[in-house]
TrEMBL record:
Name of the protein in its database record: F420-dependent oxidoreductase
Pfam families in the cross-refs: Bac_luciferase
Keywords linked to the UniProt accession: Oxidoreductase
Domain Luciferase-like: 6-307
CDD domains tied to this protein: Tetrahydromethanopterin_reductase
Domain of life: Bacteria
Xref: PANTHER family: 5,10-METHYLENETETRAHYDROMETHANOPTERIN REDUCTASE, PTHR43244
Length: 335
């Protein structure tokens, strides 16, 4: 099991440097940053900065999308960061939920997401690439052949299929083991049907973690199911709540959802939290005492999850990192 952390763009530089050093020392292998350039500061200067203060930790956007940067700019950015970090950049890609919608624009179609993944990996390898908006082929003569892992963020059946067919892993913004198994199995089945070797396919459960009494932990993390519900609402709109294509356990909790404020995306002061119940928060997050964290992560591992990624958005970041390093990560050493 790998362990990761995720920062939003409002983390101050001094604090980011401090926390990322602490996380690497504690045994975390990955650090991710939200990539939503209007809601938060541009994430790639922070990634470059943190790379200089770590030795082995991998970094990346969680998630970027195909439609906020020209593809040659994105490819050059990813290849440059890989070159200067000796291959420590990974990317996670989605359709562009907050970063597009906050501008009044629609997210990208999945076909564009998968093409972007393919072309970014090729550019970072140093291959010649063509893409729709560029009449001439693009090739970076300075790229040194890094093989950059790429993940796709997914919930719905078509996105899960795309992840299985085109990516190295899937990002699941949820830590409910049975749902993670349902999502991961769909990716694996799609990849195998496409003739891919899925033995090294990775599955990430990204969710908040919090220590302490359950009532306090639930209060600190109830913003998260609201963010998940925003994505689930899109799936229900596309497939219907009774289609059988999406588990009822995932769709039922949004029946009383009234809306979503993108200016408060992923924040505790989002005004649309009244439909969130304590059992949903406990189900979607990893909460309680260290033994409860270990038990739930073991369930996630059994469900096919290969990385648990903590959204550090709920306060007490130092304590969470330190206690994972002392009490949780060692339980998975060598696993």
């Amino acid at each position: 099991m790998e362990f990761g952390i995720t920062f939003k763009g409002f983390v101050e530089p001094d604090r980011a440097r401090y926390l990322v050093r602490a996380a690497e020392y504690a045994g975390f292998s990955h650090c991710w940053f939200y990539d939503s350039h209007i809601l938060w500061r541009e994430c790639y200067p922070a990634i470059a900065m943190c790379m200089e203060h770590t030795r082995d930790m991998h970094f990346g956007p969680l998630v970027t999308n195909p439609d906020v940067r020209d593809w040659s700019v994105a490819g050059s950015l990813f290849a440059s960061l890989n070159k200067q970090s000796n291959g420590r950049l990974e990317i996670a890609v989605g359709r562009g939920d907050s970063s597009r919608r906050v501008m009044g624009k629609k997210p990208a179609p999945l076909s564009r997401v998968t093409e972007f993944v393919e072309k970014m990996k090729a550019m970072v390898r140093g291959e010649e690439v063509t893409y729709p908006e560029c009449p001439e082929p693009v090739k970076f003569p300075w790229a040194v052949g890094h093989e950059m892992p790429a993940w796709i963020g997914a919930y719905g059946p078509l996105a899960l299929k795309a992840a299985g067919e085109a990516a190295d892993g899937v990002v699941l913004q949820i830590a409910e083991p049975s749902l993670c198994k349902w999502f991961t199995d769909q990716c694996l089945d799609a990849g195998k049907a496409a003739g891919r070797d899925m033995s090294k396919f990775r599955s990430m459960a990204a969710a908040p973690a919090y220590f302490g009494p359950m009532d306090k932990a639930i209060e600190a993390t109830k913003w998260f199911p609201a963010m998940v519900g925003n994505h689930v609402a899109d799936i229900v709109e596309k497939y219907g709540s009774e289609s059988g294509l999406v588990p009822k356990s995932l769709t039922s909790y949004i029946e009383k959802r009234r809306g979503y404020d993108y200016s408060k995306h992923g924040q505790s002061d989002n005004p649309y939290l009244d439909f969130i119940t304590p059992d949903i928060v406990e189900s979607f997050c990893v909460l309680g005492e260290p033994e409860q964290h270990i038990a739930k992560i073991r369930e996630l591992e059994a469900a096919g999850v290969t990385q648990f990624n903590i959204y550090l958005d709920s306060g007490e970041e130092e304590e969470i990192i330190a206690r994972y390093g002392r009490e949780v990560i060692p339980a998975f050493a060598g696993a």
